[in-house]
Amino acid sequence: MKSTRLLALVVAWPIFQNNLDTTMLGTALPTMAAALETPVLHLNLAITCYLLGLALCLPLSGWAADRWGARRIFLFAVTLFSVSAALCGLAGSLWTLVGLRLAQGAGAALMLPASRILLLRHVAAGDMVEAMVWFTVPGSLARMLGPLAGGALVTWFGWNGVFLFHLPVGALGLLLMWRFLPADTASPAPGEPGEPGLAGGPAAFDGRGFLLLALGMTCLTVLFEIGMKGLVPVWALALLAVLGLAPLLAYRRHALAAPTPMIDLRVLRHRIFRIATLGAIPLRISIGAVPFLLPLMLQAGFGLTPMASGLITVAGAIGSLLSRGLLIWLVKRVGFRKLLVGAAACSALCCLAYGQLRADTPVAAMFALMLLGGVCTSLAMVGLNSLGYTEVEQDEAGHASTTGTVVQQLSIMFGVTLAAGLLSLASGWRGGGGDVLTAADFPPVFMAIALLICFAVPSLYRLREEDGEEMRHRPSTQDDTH
């Protein structure tokens, strides 16, 4: 069991680094906007382009892990992510920053699915709940440290520090991975049968599928980004919608017919995986929107400093970490279905309550509310990640992990874009034009996000009481030594 916990912690390092990046960046956005002389809402491009780079390269991750080995791809991706992040800290303009964030997103695209692939391949099913709990601890720690580190780095070193900080963090991660990750088995030569450790050996690269996915996701991302801000006429938005949806529909036909598609949509035949992946999209959208909105509300709306904002928003990360102690107990007590439905409903209520905060609200009340929100959201997310893969076979782990991560990152990207667009609309309605935000712009946006979360509840309710039963009662006795 010790080896299982250690493996879970080491392969979670990219989650730690990714969450550290996003939480630090959220705290730094107002300062970055002033330094780069651009409206703060325009800086959502630094987030959405990162997520676009991530989404574009995610389909490559499963194929690359099978072709060159998950461990090799893992080490390369962490290096790419860390170096690109450091270069972002040297950017002198918004568009330079955006380009480098695309490269950083590509690194994240390769390292995030590879971490889950390694976990699924080397952890027994009976140990998966406990392994998933340990797997999510570094990410929760990063969310806790991120607002504090971001506030401190911005205060002492300027906004550049939140990016340059990734060099030492990435170097430490690489040392741990080199020491503790299981070695990849040598890839078979062309024409030779694959070996089981690499999901049947490397498949041929699905170039057609990659181009269809890249075109569709890029057009839809541009559509969401400019459509919410009214920058182009309706006919141009309709054209982007067609250019985005047509390739994705073509990919669906292609994936169901191709022998080795880049993302095998056939994994969605598993009912639990389909509900946990597609049915929970509204909840995953809120994970992108809320961390983007809260620091902006505290700094741009309430006039707090980056450090003060970080000290308050860290409550969500603390709540996420505390939820780890509750998850296994709640799963055994009420089961996955009741847990997920209840956690989603509570997350919606917390989001609604965020919109009722005011500049004169006691700090302790803000902290307590964000703590509760962190607990509820984390229970839902960790529960979904634990339950969603229970029906997935080992030889489908790569495709399932890639599919799940693509959906999650696209949902988060849409959450950021949706939040920025709704803020722009609220500011424009008030007459501010989006260049200057006030506290009055935020309540309607939080209300909209809360209503969106509610749409996940009916899908989660479709889970059965017995789903995940073996994970509730099976003792965790197998010591994984791979």
How does this model look, in words?
By secondary structure, this protein is mainly alpha-helical. It folds into two domains: 2-182 and 262-470, Growth Hormone, Chain: A, CATH 1.20.1250; 207-261, no CATH class. It is 75% helix and 0% strand. Helix 2 (13-36) runs antiparallel to helix 5 and helix 9 packs antiparallel against helix 10. The longest helix has 49 residues, at 306-354.
Main β-sheet: number of strands, strand sense, barrel status? none
- Overall shape: globular
Mean pLDDT: 82
CATH class of the largest domain: Mainly Alpha
CATH topology of the largest domain: Growth Hormone, Chain: A
The H/E string reads HHHHHHHHHHHHHHHHHH
Oligomer: single chain
The domain count comes to: 2
**In CATH terms, what is the architecture of the largest domain?**
Up-down Bundle
Helix content: over 70%
Q: What topology emerges from the helices and strands here?
A:
Blueprint: H1 2-11, H2 13-36, H3 44-68, H4 70-88, H5 94-122, H6 128-157, H7 161-164, H8 166-180, H9 207-227, H10 234-257, H11 271-279, H12 281-301, H13 306-354, H14 363-388, H15 397-430, H16 443-454, H17 456-461, H18 469-473
Helix pairs in contact: 1-5, 1-6, 1-8, 2-5, 2-6, 2-8, 2-12, 2-13, 3-4, 3-5, 3-9, 3-15, 4-5, 4-8, 5-15, 6-13, 6-14, 9-10, 9-15, 11-14, 12-13, 12-15, 12-16, 13-14, 13-16
